[in-house]
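User: quick one, sequence for these tokens?
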């Protein structure tokens, strides 16, 4: 079923919208959540929360890209679950990804004169300034949190090439943020 048809089902408040959305996007959402959470049970809960949130937000929302809309909801739901969990201990994979970006993005923004929204707008501008291939690789690795091997494979490059490209992108990001007045 096409996204336009799915969204029409949501607008008609047809409960079949949830079943059809799960058929089309369920496995992708489950894999995404599982990469963040490292737990199938938590990932399943996250997918259920995502579908429920989609049901409650469409309408009034009318997303142009339903898959991206669902991934965004899923990502927030997964990090909500992770936040609850990390009070006791932190997830090693999230720490590794944070360490990769730590040199580029200030860890403690409370001492700076910049808001999360302003930093988000800067990151958005930076991502849009990248070449398409760089943008896709960057988002696969740091937004979708795909393992390096998978992100490289899906981008049609070797893992070592992906490491080099991501390193260069992080250097560009650091320079970009410094030009924007963000001390890193």
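Assistant:
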């Amino acid at each position: 079923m096409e996204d336009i048809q799915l969204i029409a089902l949501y607008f008609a408040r047809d409960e079949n919208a949830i079943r059809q959305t799960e058929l089309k996007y369920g496995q992708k959402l489950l894999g995404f959540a599982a990469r963040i959470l490292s737990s199938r049970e938590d990932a399943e809960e996250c997918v259920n929360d995502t579908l429920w949130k989609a049901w409650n937000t469409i309408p009034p929302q009318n997303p142009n890209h339903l898959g991206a809309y669902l991934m965004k909801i899923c990502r927030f739901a997964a990090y909500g679950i992770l936040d609850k969990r990390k009070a006791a201990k932190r997830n090693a994979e999230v720490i590794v990804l944070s360490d990769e970006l730590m040199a580029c993005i200030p860890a403690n923004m409370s001492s700076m004169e910049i808001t999360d929204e302003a930093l988000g707008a800067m990151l958005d501008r930076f991502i849009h300034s990248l070449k398409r291939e760089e943008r896709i690789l960057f988002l696969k690795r740091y937004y979708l949190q795909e393992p390096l091997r998978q992100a490289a494979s899906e981008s049609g490059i070797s893992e070592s090439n992906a490491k080099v490209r991501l390193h260069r992108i992080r250097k560009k990001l650091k320079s970009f943020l410094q030009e924007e007045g963000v001390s890193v």
